[in-house]
Backbone:
């Protein structure tokens, strides 16, 4: 089934004219890409004096040439008799080519580049001749990391995120169970409960930063029901007097991280809920009825009959929650920017801060932090892939 | 069905359940409701401490109009569109191709390459950040919208491939087999046979990728620094810094940033959830 040897010989001949035309087109595109567009000539032709303004139009011309080159290459290859003879072996690579190349260049290769940066001291710049200005320092960055109290704070906070974020899974399950009914309008309730996940994390961060505000936030309002009363002051104006002042959660070194995590949990619970709702939809009714006849109900039913059937949902929920916890950048950036005094830093934010933020240009050190984060993530990625591999083997 | 349907229970339980639904929803969405209330009241209310009561005047239109008039919100929203839509098109198109290759052809590299896409999809952004910045700089597309789109499209191809491949794997393989036996070209099988069958998957992916990119904050802060090309997420945070004592405007702007993904979610709900819960029902 790999080769197509049967059939009339003429059908598999190279379509000469097609290959020649496509080949010429391909060559033209490559020459264009290599010699014309990459020089400043392009910018002069288009009448731009400043490089920065020429970048976007130049980019589009380059992309056009690239796309034309790809089309020409495809046309050429599919015209060859070699392709026609080995269709099933070659076709997948043609389908893969663009996506894979793109993904390699932007995702896979940068991982290795980042790891290699972590052994250097570099500020991200090149000298005027385009020569790299960094120096190779071996394991120095990692040694510095081990003596950096901020690194330990970030690592500890990442651990807190991981542990507390796991709450999203049972809470999500609980809400899903609560909503798994068929009363009228329940679909609207389900979508409204899912709402927080659709909103940008930046907006969630802003909402919670405001809710935590000790002067006029939501929390201080609830606080005042218990600890405050409104009395006229000596000027006669009504003012709020509290027996215990409302806490400034994001301004407090101890509570700030918990405050940020709580905000992050809100959308994450929604996500876990929707995973479980879908899972509950597919729970076998017969099994539950059978168990019910055997007298199982409540917790017992949940633990022994329903949860085993929800295993795939639980697996996905845990994986996305772990990844969400380790990717916690947006929340920290909008709510605290790592403060107060670095107490809410997580590896993701600390890396950003060191590389392009406050520490400007510590590319090597930032990469070392990123590598540590990557290694932690790799544990989960490997576990996920291993599980997927098991399923693939089973499915065969 | 678990838990036991409330219809089979006493009237009291049913009533309690129906009453508890709106209460629970109210508590769950309280932060959102509160910020909405803030966004429709005049600034004077907040100054005098009327943050949660009935607004002294309803200023919904004025406040939101003020956001557009006083800030670059409109530009930010357009920029986000310019980033999200091309990314969506490119990554979904590429994933149709890669997903097809990985699902339909049984070659030695199919599984390892599939795992490569899956693994890449889960890596922390920070490990990609500096090389991507460096590369964008050298390609002279740093700090431009197309530069950001290129990265997003490449990265999202990972997730889309995961999704597409699994979806196509579930298609009846005999269909493709018989088309091949009839001598139909591989690309024609893809275009005329498989693509129409995966339309639901394409719809689901489009909704998801649009929402993901709309809500992206990290890459926009890293790859764009020019105020002219910032998307709404970064814009809103900038506004937060500028309008320190004008919470009614900040909250209006935040809610504006949330409107398009929310609309998208409500219109395309079925596809959206199908996309997110991929794999949650089967192994």
Residues:
């Amino acid at each position: 089934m790999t080769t197509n040897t049967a059939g009339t010989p003429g059908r598999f001949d190279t379509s000469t004219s097609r290959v020649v035309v496509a080949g010429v087109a391909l060559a033209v595109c490559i020459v264009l890409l290599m010699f014309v567009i990459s020089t400043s000539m392009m910018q002069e032709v288009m009448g731009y004096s400043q490089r920065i303004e020429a970048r976007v139009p130049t980019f589009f011309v380059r992309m056009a040439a690239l796309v034309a080159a790809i089309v020409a290459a495809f046309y050429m290859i599919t015209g060859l008799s070699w392709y026609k003879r080995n269709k099933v072996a070659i076709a997948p690579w043609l389908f893969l080519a663009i996506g894979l190349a793109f993904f390699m260049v932007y995702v896979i290769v940068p991982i290795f580049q980042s790891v290699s940066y972590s052994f250097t001291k570099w500020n991200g710049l090149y000298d005027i001749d385009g020569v790299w200005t960094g120096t190779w320092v071996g394991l120095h960055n990692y040694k510095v990391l081990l003596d950096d109290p901020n690194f330990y704070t970030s690592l500890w906070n990442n651990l807190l995120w991981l542990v507390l974020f796991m709450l999203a899974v049972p809470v999500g399950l609980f809400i899903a169970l609560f909503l798994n009914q068929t009363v009228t309008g329940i679909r609207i309730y389900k979508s409204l409960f899912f709402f927080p996940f659709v909103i940008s994390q930046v907006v969630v961060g802003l909402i919670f930063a405001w809710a935590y505000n000790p002067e006029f936030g939501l929390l201080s309002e609830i606080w005042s029901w218990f600890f405050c009363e409104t009395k006229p002051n000596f000027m006669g104006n009504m003012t709020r007097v509290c027996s215990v002042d409302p806490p400034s959660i994001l301004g407090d070194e101890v509570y700030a991280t918990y405050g940020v995590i709580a905000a992050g949990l809100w959308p994450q619970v929604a996500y876990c809920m929707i995973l479980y709702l879908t899972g509950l939809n597919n729970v076998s009714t017969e099994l539950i009825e059978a168990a019910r006849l055997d007298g199982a109900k409540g917790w017992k039913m949940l633990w022994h009959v329903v949860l085993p059937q929800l295993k795939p949902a639980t697996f996905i929920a845990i994986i996305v929650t772990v990844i969400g916890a380790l990717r916690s950048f947006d929340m920290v950036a909008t709510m605290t920017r790592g403060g107060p005094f670095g107490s809410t830093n997580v590896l993701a934010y600390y890396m950003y801060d060191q590389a392009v933020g406050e520490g400007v240009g510590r590319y090597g050190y930032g990469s070392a932090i990123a590598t540590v984060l990557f290694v932690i993530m790799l544990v989960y990625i490997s576990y996920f892939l291993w599980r997927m591999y098991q399923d693939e083997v089973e499915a065969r | 069905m678990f838990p036991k349907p409330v219809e089979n229970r006493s009237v009291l339980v049913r009533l309690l359940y129906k009453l508890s639904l709106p209460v629970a929803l109210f508590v769950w969405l309280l932060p959102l409701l509160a910020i909405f209330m803030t966004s429709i009241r005049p600034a004077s209310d907040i100054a005098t401490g009327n943050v949660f009561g009935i607004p002294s005047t309803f200023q919904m239109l004025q406040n939101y109009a003020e956001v557009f008039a006083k800030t670059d919100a409109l530009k930010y929203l357009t920029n986000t569109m310019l980033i999200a839509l091309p990314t969506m098109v490119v990554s979904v198109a590429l994933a149709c191709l890669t997903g097809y290759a990985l699902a339909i052809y049984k070659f030695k590299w199919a599984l390892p390459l599939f795992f490569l896409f899956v693994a890449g999809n889960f890596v922390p952004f920070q490990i990609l950040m500096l090389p991507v910045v460096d590369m964008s700089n050298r390609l002279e597309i740093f700090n431009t919208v197309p530069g950001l789109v290129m990265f997003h499209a490449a990265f999202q191809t990972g997730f889309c491939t995961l999704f597409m491949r699994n979806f196509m794997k579930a298609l009846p393989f005999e269909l493709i087999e018989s088309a091949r036996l009839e001598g139909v070209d591989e690309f024609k099988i893809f275009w005329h046979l498989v693509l129409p069958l995966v339309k639901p998957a394409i719809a689901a992916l489009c909704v998801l990728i649009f929402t993901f990119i709309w809500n992206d904050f990290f890459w926009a802060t890293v790859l764009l620094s020019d105020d002219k090309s910032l998307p709404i997420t970064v814009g809103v945070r900038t506004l937060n810094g500028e309008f320190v004592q004008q919470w009614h405007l900040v909250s209006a702007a935040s809610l504006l940033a949330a409107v398009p993904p929310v609309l998208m979610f409500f219109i395309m709900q079925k596809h959206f959830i199908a996309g997110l819960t991929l794999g949650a029902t089967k192994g």
